[in-house]
Amino acid sequence: MSGRMKQRRALNPVDLATLSVNERILRECHNLYVDPENGLVKVASNVGLNLLAPRKKIIVMLIGNHSAGKSTFINWYIEEHVQKTGVAIETQGFTIVTSGRKRESLTGNATLHLFPYLKPLQVISEVVDYLGTEVSTSKQKKFSLVTFIDTPGLVDGEMVYPFDVDKAILWLGDIADLTFVFFDPIGQALCKRTIDLVEKLNTRHGDRLRFYLSKADEAGDESDRQKVMMQIVQELCKRPGLNKCGFDMPTIYIPLSNKYVRCINQIDEVCKDIEKTINQTIQNMLNTLEKDCEHVAELINARIEEDNEAKTYNFHARSRVILLGLAGLFLPFLLFLNFMVSSFSKEFFHSFLGQNGTESLYTCLSPVRGFWQVIPNDYHFTALGIILVVSIMFLLLARWFTRLKPTMNRKERRNLLEKRDYVQNTVKVKKHHLYQEYLEQSITEQDL
Ligand SMILES: Nc1nc2c(ncn2[C@@H]2O[C@H](COP(=O)(O)OP(=O)(O)OP(=O)(O)O)[C@@H](O)[C@H]2O)c(=O)[nH]1
Ligand SMILES: [Mg+2]
To answer: Which domain range does residue 212 map to?
Structure first.
């Protein structure tokens, strides 16, 4: 790589030491896109391609009726009490729960600053006032690779939300990698608002939706649980957008050490699902990185090819301008010379062209004189007009050909070629290394 290229923003040694392999892969990949100098986003934008940098974490949104246990699940996952829980309507807005260096609570505007991809949410009025972030230092489970979105409990009837909650959830569903729907057996599991939203989310991103029967320890005995589940599934299946049969609805509850419950707890499946999504996201991201590199290199090649063509066109255009310009000026010049020669005596020319020069001038102009003599005197003006019109046409044509195509200068061209080499070689090689590391880690895990 050329010395002109500055080095990519590297991870600091403390990060390198404390990050897991997956975390590092996601970060490095993200940096390959956002590097201010050679990042793919910038290089791509130079050739008219709009690329989005991948996120460093997956997004898991939790929705469900009020008191279904969404906030409790987040607290359990990260093993820290960051979200208020309780029987009252606890979560009234959207809370982003993410890992960071310092425990902190951030406001809506700070949240938008921290997660710029959430900015389009602003179109929903008032929502920013009900948006916040809880930063936790937890490193439990896969939390360092997950951003949770806790949502307000969904209720029917009188409850008035201060913003368009359905619209916000649908929009967040578009950006979330996973959306967990919690149905609790005692509350309003069959809340119409929840089912309406689930139906819409399912038609948009059915593959990202997961259904859980939460608080399963409170659902009574096994037959009660089955009954509740049947009711929920039946209700869901009534909807045209949801009538896929065979709903998978694991039963989950927050395990409490002092409470014995005779109920299968599939909460580990939820954690595995999150892990699976992280792994898929990493693989997709690395594949996309390679595709983006190829796309950018192709666009740069096309730009170079276009520039070559523009340069060839301009060369021909310039040649045509010179020829047409000469043609346009030549005839009037000859006529002017002839006029001069016939207006002055031979001796006049002798004085500054000499004998030979004057003879040559007369010889050169003899065809013009001959031509002029052939034309009857009455038509001299007409011939002069025709010659002038033809000359003007030549000059107009020359002017038309002076419209050159824009081309790159040498520096721009060299920069572009360097970026192509960087994308094709350095970034692609880096991608292969990251893939290798990812695979090695999976193999080691399987071996153990
Ligand atoms: N027995 C039992 N109780 C639970 C479980 N999960 C949550 N709870 C309790 O259920 C109540 C509501 O839980 P939250 O986590 O606040 O529910 P939420 O879905 O966030 O509710 P909103 O924020 O109002 O939408 C709390 O009192 C929790 O302690 C569970 O798995 N088992
Ligand atoms: Mg809550």
So the answer is: 13-300+418-447
Residue 343, CA distances (Å) to 339, 347, 349 in order: 6, 12, 11
Task: List the shell of residues around ion ligand 2, using CB closer than 5 Å.
Answer: 70-71, 90-91
The Cα 317–Cα 327 span in angstroms is 15
* C-alpha 64 – ligand 2 centre gap (Å): 9
Whole-number Å distance between alpha carbons of 169 and 62: 10
Strands (E), 120-213: 131-136, 146-150, 178-183, 209-213
d(CA 420, CA 425): 8
Residue 242 covered by a domain: yes
Q: Which runs of E-coded beta strand occur in 235-326?
A: none
Helix then strand then coil, in percent of the chain rounded to 5, is 60, 10, 30
What is the residue with the minimal CA distance to atom 8 of ligand 1? 69
Its sign, for the CA torsion 215, 221, 226, 231, is negative
Query: Does 165 sit in the ligand 1 pocket, CB within 6 Å?
Result: no
Residues present in the chain in total: 448
* Residues 50-109: tens digit of each pLDDT: 998 899 999 999 999 888 999 999 999 999 999 988 776 666 899 999 999 999 999 999
Q: Which ligand is nearest to the CA of 193?
A: 1
Is 320 a domain residue? no
Q: In the prediction, which pLDDT does 446 show? A: 54
271 in any annotated domain: yes
Neighbours of 158 (CB within 10 A): 5
Q: Which of 245, 283, 250, 284 is nearest to 267 (CA)?
A: 250
Q: Which residues contact 227 (CB under 8 A, 6 or more apart)?
A: none
C-beta separation of 225 from 213 below 8 A: yes
Total structural domains within the chain: 1
Q: Is residue 27 part of a domain?
A: yes
Q: pLDDT by residue (tens digit) across 240-295?
A: 877 665 678 899 999 876 777 778 899 999 999 999 999 999 999 999 999 999 99
Give the distance (Å) from ligand 2 centre to CA of residue 63. 9
Are 191 and 65 within 8 A, CB to CB?
yes
Q: Which residues, including other chains, have CB under 8 Å from residue 3's CB and lie 6 or more apart?
A: none
Q: What is the CATH number of the domain that holds 287?
A: 3.40.50.300
Tokens of 55: 């996120």
Structure tokens at 392: 């003007």
Mutation choice for ligand 1 from 215, 225, 261, 270, CB with most ligand atoms inside 8 A: 215
